[in-house]
Every structure is written in C-alpha cells, then in structure tokens.
C-alpha cells in the first residue's frame, strides 16, 4: 500500500450523556487547556462539542449518545510533555490518576473524564 500514507490521528470521539457539554467544557477547556472548536451547524444541532489541544495537533470530539455508557476499556492514548504536571492538576481537581508500569520504558497513567470515559496520557519524552 505504498500509495497510502497515514499521517496522524486528527481527532478522537468519545461519548457523553445528553446535557454533558458544560461538564466536558469544564474538563477539556478549563482543566486541560484545550480550546473549543465550533461544530458545523448541522452537527451542532445534535449536541456535543469539539475541543482542540494547544498547538493544534489533536482534537477531542464529544458526541452525545443515548443511552449513554462510558468507555471503561477503549480509550485514546495521548502523548504529552509535562505528564507529572498534568497528573498533579488532575489530582488537585479531584480526578483519580492511575499510574501504570505495564509497558517497559513508558511512563503513563489513566484517568477518567467527568463521565467515566477512560483516558490514557503518555509521557512524550519517555
């Protein structure tokens, strides 16, 4: 398949419950520092919200799902610089940080968003 080049992940979508947009904003914008991205009007009518990481390399899309069930196993793995600082910020805000050493040579932890969706953050420098 030399005629196809996969460059990077543009976005990851996770489910949120109906009415969860404000909690998603508090987590992704206020706590993690993402910027909200306007959804196209036809998609905005369905609810949910989109966020872009500082630097623009990743978007997280929140899609309303009913009935809602959090993703407890499936998850995005997000490479970051400043892993320890993020862990402290999350813990200070009341989010549990679960460190994992299961992958040798990788420094990482899991946490859950306000809806119980599993998220993994990985040290980009490790």
List keywords for this structure.
single chain, 126 residues, 4-stranded mixed beta sheet, 3 helices, globular
Q: Could you explain how this protein is built, in words?
A:
This protein is an alpha/beta fold and 126 residues long. Helices cover 20% and strands 29% of the residues. It has helices spanning 21-31, 41-44, 83-92; strands at 11-16, 35-37, 49-52, 59-64, 77-80, 98-100, 108-112, 118-123. The longest helix is centred in the first third of the chain and has 11 residues, at 21-31.
What would you call the structural class? alpha/beta
Taking pLDDT < 50 over at least 5 consecutive residues as the criterion, the unreliable ranges are: none
Query: How big a fraction of the residues is strand?
Result: 25-35%
Mean pLDDT: 95
Question: Which outline best applies?
Answer: globular
Determine the N-to-C terminus distance.
31 Å
Number of strands: 8
Tell me the strand order in the biggest sheet: 1-4-3-2
Whole-angstrom Rg: 15 Å
Share in helix: 10-25%
Describe the secondary-structure layout.
Blueprint: E1 11-16, H1 21-31, E2 35-37, H2 41-44, E3 49-52, E4 59-64, E5 77-80, H3 83-92, E6 98-100, E7 108-112, E8 118-123
Parallel strand pairs: 1-4, 5-8
Antiparallel strand pairs: 2-3, 3-4, 6-7, 7-8
Short overview:
By secondary structure, this protein is of the alpha/beta class.
């Amino acid at each position: 398949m030399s005629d196809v080049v996969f460059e990077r992940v543009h976005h990851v979508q996770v489910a949120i419950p109906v009415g969860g947009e404000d909690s998603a904003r508090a987590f992704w914008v206020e706590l993690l520092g993402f910027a909200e991205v306007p959804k196209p009007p036809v998609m905005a009518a369905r609810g949910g919200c989109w966020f872009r990481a500082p630097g623009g390399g990743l978007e997280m899309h929140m899609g309303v799902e009913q009935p809602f069930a959090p993703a407890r196993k499936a998850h995005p793995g997000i490479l970051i610089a400043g892993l320890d600082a993020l862990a402290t910020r999350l813990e200070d805000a009341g989010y549990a940080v679960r460190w994992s050493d299961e992958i040798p040579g990788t420094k990482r932890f899991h946490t859950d968003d306000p809806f119980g969706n599993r998220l993994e953050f990985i040290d980009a420098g490790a």
